[in-house]
Amino acid sequence: METNCQNTVVTTEAVKKCLRGKRLVFIGDSTVRQYFEDLSELLKMDLFRNKTAVDRDLCITLEWRKHEMPYHYREWYPRGDLNSIAHYIRLLADDSSTSGLLLILTYNTHLQSFSSEVYRSRIRATVEAVKYLFHKKPNARVFFKGPHAPVSMTQWFDARVVLLFRDVILEEFRDLRENVVYLDTLSISIAHADLEVHPKEKTMRSQTDQLLSYLC
Asked: What is the CATH number of domain 12-215?
């Protein structure tokens, strides 16, 4: 997986030009939903209740889809259809209308209390689905948001598990390292001294800038 790039500062207009005609699908937990929210705010897109944002003039679409159970937060469990990331990817691969497809994926926050083999099985299934996607749509672009260490909530998270998860991701994606970009959000969080589950505004913008540096 590609793990390094030259970060650049881009204007809103430049981002719009870059993303013209693109469909960005964010699949995972609420930490990848933050990308969806930050980008839709940056680009001043029309936001709909089904977690879709649209710029009709430029034909830009952003979507967020939740991954399947488990969910740590006992006071709120997602309702409605929940599917694995692999399932969503295969649907997109078989969608003949999809063009200019960009996928941003993550598994992290809700799997930390389970064994590493559970995590590895999710990542392995995702890898197989990504291979299928590239077979059907070789021009698709895929990004995997790496785990960060929200150590402010020790009842859920352990920094050692984060490092283990990172190793699992890089190991399982080794055959796709030339095709899938790994987003190192751990380093960004440490640089900002922001170790919350949901990164604060400046930290989140740095993460969005990192993604845009690869995209644009």
From this structure: 3.40.50.1110
User: pLDDT (tens digit, 9 = 90+) per residue, 137-186?
Assistant: 999 999 999 888 776 665 566 777 788 889 999 999 999 989 999 999 98
- Return the amino acid letter for 106: T
The residue extents of the domains of the chain are 12-215
Distances (CA, A) of 53 to 40, 42, 56, 60, 64: 6, 12, 10, 8, 9
Amino acid type, 214: Y
- How far is residue 180's CA from residue 145's CA, in Å, rounded to a whole number? 10
Contacts of residue 116, defined as CB under 8 A and 6 or more positions apart, other chains included, come to 161, 164, 165, 168
Which of 2-12 are b and which e, b meaning 16 or more Cβ less than 10 Å from the residue's Cβ? eeeeeeeebee
The DSSP symbol for 2 reads B
Cβ atoms of 120 and 83 within 8 Å: the answer is: no
Q: How many angstroms separate the CA atoms of 148 and 146, rounded?
A: 7
